[in-house]
């Protein structure tokens, strides 16, 4: 089982990837997390990330290979944040072919722009433990972390201006990727306006 979750900003990729992975008892793999982990021991990657420079497709794919050949990925995995370009699609295909594995389904998450704005502008994060809260998972006490009692903060880049730019960038770049997977018969579009737990049912609905 290999599921890929894609979608624009604040469509719930991370949350739903976690839920789906837990339900299927397979890992949730985020290329963003892989790069951040690699930066702890790889100076070149750390410098590029700190400068906001792009990491080459080949490096990302090599890091992904190191992750998915581990024992806990034997049954499959949920991939979040990759591929984002046609070049990455072809590299991923080559990688999976070399391992004798195939993609089960590609899930595109969508949501109305109004909801996306609400999710971002009402999102809060605990500066101490990193837990994120929002309209789908609000804290029990307003602006206070359930786990460690710290005051929740708004991320510095969670503004309407930056969000608008991110949405436009996604819409501009996503077309070729979605078309590719649609032609391959792998694409399913899911409206993420509902409760995140529904993703388990939705990925297999016809």
How do the strands line up in the largest sheet? 2-3-1-4-8
Mean pLDDT: 87
Shape assignment: globular
Order of helices and strands: EHEHHHEHEHEEEHEH
Poorly predicted ranges: none
C-alpha-based Rg, rounded:
17 Å
Task: Decide which structural class fits the backbone.
Answer: alpha/beta
Kindly report how far apart the N and C termini lie. 17 Å
CATH superfamily of one domain: P-loop containing nucleotide triphosphate hydrolases
The CATH architecture category of one domain equals 3-Layer(aba) Sandwich
Proportion of beta-strand residues: 15-25%
Largest sheet: 5 strands, parallel
Text of the CATH class of one domain? Alpha Beta
Protein architecture, described:
With 206 residues, the chain is an alpha/beta fold. The protein has a domain at 2-111 and 174-202: 3-Layer(aba) Sandwich (Rossmann fold). The chain is 45% helix and 15% strand. The protein is built from eight helices and eight strands. The strands form two sheets. A five-stranded parallel β-sheet has the order 2-3-1-4-8, with helices on both faces. The protein has a three-stranded antiparallel β-sheet with strand order 6-5-7, with no helix packed on it. α2 packs across α4 (57-68) and α4 (57-68) runs parallel beside α5 (86-98). 26% of the residues are buried. The mean pLDDT is 87.
List the helices and strands and how they pair.
Blueprint: E1 2-7, H1 13-24, E2 28-30, H2 31-39, H3 43-51, H4 57-68, E3 77-80, H5 86-98, E4 105-110, H6 113-121, E5 124-126, E6 132-133, E7 152-153, H7 160-183, E8 187-191, H8 199-202
Parallel strand pairs: 1-3, 1-4, 2-3, 4-8
Antiparallel strand pairs: 5-6, 5-7
Helix pairs in contact: 2-3, 2-4, 4-5
């Amino acid at each position: 089982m290999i599921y890929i979750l894609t979608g624009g900003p604040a469509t719930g990729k991370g949350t739903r990837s976690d839920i789906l992975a837990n339900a299927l008892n397979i890992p949730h793999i985020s290329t963003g997390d892989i790069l951040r982990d690699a930066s702890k021991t790889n100076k070149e990657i750390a410098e590029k990330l700190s400068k906001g420079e792009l990491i080459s497709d080949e490096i990302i794919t090599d890091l992904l290979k190191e992750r998915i050949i581990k024992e806990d990925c034997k049954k499959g995995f949920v991939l979040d944040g990759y591929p984002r370009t046609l070049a990455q699609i072809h590299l991923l295909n080559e990688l999976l072919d070399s391992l004798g594995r195939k993609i089960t389904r590609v899930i595109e998450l969508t949501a109305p722009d109004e909801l996306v704005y609400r999710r971002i502008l009402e999102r809060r994060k605990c500066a101490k433990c990193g837990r994120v809260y929002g309209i789908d998972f609000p804290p029990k006490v307003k602006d206070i972390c359930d786990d460690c009692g710290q005051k929740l903060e708004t991320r510095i880049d969670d503004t309407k201006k930056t969000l608008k730019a991110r949405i436009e960038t996604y819409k501009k770049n996503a077309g070729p990727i979605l078309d590719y997977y649609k032609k391959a018969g792998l694409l399913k579009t899911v409206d993420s306006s509902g409760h995140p737990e529904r993703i388990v049912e939705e990925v297999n609905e016809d």
